[in-house]
């Protein structure tokens, strides 16, 4: 199968076809796992406040931007213009990079947890790390296929 066909063509879908075309189908999973990261980081104790702040920023920013893009694609705001394909590819590349940095920092903070933290807090942080890496993988896959779509447009 050609790369353009594998990525749902060289145009962005509109309406509810957003939920059945690849890679735009990944919006749903990015939304879910990004929300889980946001909830877990907000409820957990991280040894370094700066790390928690960055991970919160990344999770909230990506959650809101993904939700906004998904809604705009469903209502057809893009109108089939190629500039939106560029925006889609750029956003997913930046989101993948942000989530990778947040995942690594959260993993480092979890590894360095020491006395004063309960077993439950440690497990919350492990869950946040796992979901952050899943979100990173989703954004990387979406970025790769968005770049293929961008190149073929």
From TrEMBL:
<keyword id="KW-1133">Transmembrane helix</keyword>
<dbReference type="GO" id="GO:0019911">
    <property type="term" value="F:structural constituent of myelin sheath"/>
</dbReference>
<dbReference type="GO" id="GO:0022010">
    <property type="term" value="P:central nervous system myelination"/>
</dbReference>
<feature type="transmembrane region" description="Helical">
    <location>
        <begin position="89"/>
        <end position="114"/>
    </location>
</feature>
<dbReference type="GO" id="GO:0002175">
    <property type="term" value="P:protein localization to paranode region of axon"/>
</dbReference>
<feature type="transmembrane region" description="Helical">
    <location>
        <begin position="54"/>
        <end position="77"/>
    </location>
</feature>
<dbReference type="GO" id="GO:1902043">
    <property type="term" value="P:positive regulation of extrinsic apoptotic signaling pathway via death domain receptors"/>
</dbReference>
<feature type="transmembrane region" description="Helical">
    <location>
        <begin position="126"/>
        <end position="148"/>
    </location>
</feature>
<feature type="domain" description="MARVEL">
    <location>
        <begin position="18"/>
        <end position="151"/>
    </location>
</feature>
<keyword id="KW-0472">Membrane</keyword>
<dbReference type="InterPro" id="IPR050578">
    <property type="entry name" value="MARVEL-CKLF_proteins"/>
</dbReference>
<feature type="transmembrane region" description="Helical">
    <location>
        <begin position="20"/>
        <end position="42"/>
    </location>
</feature>
<protein>
    <recommendedName>
        <fullName>Myelin and lymphocyte protein</fullName>
    </recommendedName>
</protein>
<dbReference type="Pfam" id="PF01284">
    <property type="entry name" value="MARVEL"/>
</dbReference>
<dbReference type="GO" id="GO:0005783">
    <property type="term" value="C:endoplasmic reticulum"/>
</dbReference>
<comment type="similarity">
    <text>Belongs to the MAL family.</text>
</comment>
<dbReference type="InterPro" id="IPR013295">
    <property type="entry name" value="MAL"/>
</dbReference>
<dbReference type="GO" id="GO:0098737">
    <property type="term" value="P:protein insertion into plasma membrane"/>
</dbReference>
<dbReference type="GO" id="GO:0120003">
    <property type="term" value="C:hinge region between urothelial plaques of apical plasma membrane"/>
</dbReference>
<dbReference type="InterPro" id="IPR008253">
    <property type="entry name" value="Marvel"/>
</dbReference>
<dbReference type="GO" id="GO:0044853">
    <property type="term" value="C:plasma membrane raft"/>
</dbReference>
<keyword id="KW-0449">Lipoprotein</keyword>
<keyword id="KW-0812">Transmembrane</keyword>
